[in-house]
Fold:
Amino acid sequence: MTLQRWSWGVGVAVLGAWVLAMPALAHHSSAPFYDATKSVEVAGKVTKFLIRNPHSFLYVSETTPQGPVEWQIELGTAASLTRTGWTVDTLKPGTEIRVKGQPSRAEGSHGMCCARITRPDGSPVTPGGRLTEEKQPPPL
Amino acid sequence: MSALLAQMEASGLATWVRESPSLWAYPTILTLHSIGLGIVVGASVIVDLRLLGRARALGSADVSGLYPIIWWAFAVNATTGALLFAADATRKSAQPIFLVKLACIAVALIATLRTRPLANGSDLRPGRGTGTLPAVLSLLGWLGAIAAGRMMAYL
Structure:
C-alpha cells in the first residue's frame, strides 16, 4: 500500500471514530457525565462554594429520612461566574437554596449540572436580581 | 510524593491559576497551551511527512529551520503545562490517561531528537532512509499526546 493510500486510511478512521464519539461529546461536553433527559430538584443548605477553573462547584446538603446527602453541583468557569456577578459571598455556607438540574450518570452519586439556583421559595439568589438566565450561573 | 503534590497545589501561583476569575489566569494559560500545541505538532508533522517522502520540494534548510520553532513552542507548552498541572496536581497525577499523555510526549520528543540530524544530512531523501521509524514514532507520539490530553477531561 502506498503512503498516500495509507494516509487516507488513517484520515478516514480518525473521522469515523470522531463521528461515532460525537453524541457523547455534544452539548457543552456535559453529556458524558450528566443526563439531559432527566431532571432532579433539591432543597438544602450550602456547605461549600468553590469558584475555580476549569469548573466551579457548589455543595448543598439535603436532609433526607436516611440522613444528610451532599450534592455536588458543577458550574461554569471562575471567569464566567464572576462576570455574572456571583462571588463566594453570593452563596455562603448555611444559605438555604433550591437547585434544579440534570442528574449525574454515575450510579449512586449525587451530582448535578446545568442547574437553576433559587431561594427556597423560587425567588432569585442575587439580591434585587430578576430571575433571568443572565442572573443564573452560566452553563459549563 | 503526594505531600509534595499537595504542597504544589496549595502554592500561591497554583491557587491563582485555579481560583482567579481573571481571563489572564487559567483561560490565557490554556490558550497559550493550545497555541503552543498547534505550533509544536504542526511543525513536527511537516518534518515527519517530509521524512516519509511527502512535500519533497522542501530542502534540508527548510526542514532544519523548523526545529528552533518546535523547541520554542515546546518550551511554551512545558511552562503552561506545568502551571495547569500544578493547579490540579493531586487529581491529575492520579489520572492514568495523564501518564499516557506524558509517555506519548516522551516518545515524540525522543523521536524528534532522532530526526534532527537527519534533517541536515543525506537521509533527507524521498521516502527513504533511517528517518522512517522516528518520523512515524514522532507522528504517533504527538497525535497520541493530543488525544490523551483532551481525554483527561473525560476519563
